[in-house]
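Table S5 (text form). Sequence records supplied for joint modeling of the two-component complex.
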Amino acid sequence: MSRAVEESNRAMLRARDAMDRAYAEPLDIPALARIAHVSEAHFIRTFRATFGETPHRYLQRRRVERAMWLLVETERDVTDICFAVGFSSLGTFSRTFRQIVGESPTGFRRRATPTNVPSCFTKAWTRPISFG
Amino acid sequence: MGMTMNAISRSQIYVLDQDEALDFYVNKLGMEVNTDQDLGFMRWLTVNLPGDPEREILLEKPGPPALDPATAEQVRELLTKGALGGYLFMTTDDARKTHEDLVAKGVEITDEPTERPYGIDFGIRDPFGNKIRIGQMFPRA
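The corresponding structure-token record, covering 273 residues in total, follows.
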């Protein structure tokens, strides 16, 4: 009984890890469901039950977090960063960024400061939340 | 003043299966078995990095009587969703080469090698959900 939950959790974690690692690639639900070895509908439902948000939302916020990081840590321009983190249009990127962060990428860049902890902690702790 | 502790000699992480853990930590990551002893009530299994037997990692299986069955189940569920917090940080002389070796062995990468102010590091996941970070650290200023 519990074995099934563990296997399912681990498979969902594998798909989430893929988003953390390969956010820059054109990841979509079919590709992620394949990593988890389940159907697309099952994947979306189970991921949400496991982690409290949909895979789409997780990925979107991972991409925005990586964009925030690049805005602070590099001098690359906004368009370049938009494509580097996996968005395919500047319009979608700017709209999504503003929606999630509450300000434009340029505005965010102006007031943010770099950190110096291992990247995995930055990724885990500065991804904008989508629950609660 | 007055504190005389001088080393972190053993750390513990939970694993779901000790044979599988042994295969991963020894055959894939290249660690050594330090102690593998059946104590009757538990299998005391520790590993260390080659040349560093003073720092052991205990690979413990959660279960009764140390944990009641329902609690053990919660631990296993949190572990497999990556939320238990078992976390190992290791250092290497060459992060990119170590990454390449581990990829060839089929180890799950969570974070590709990145150059940061403190060094070059990357992340991997053990078969159960524990996170491991491997870094080639720059000398501290």
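Note: Chain A has a mean pLDDT of 92.
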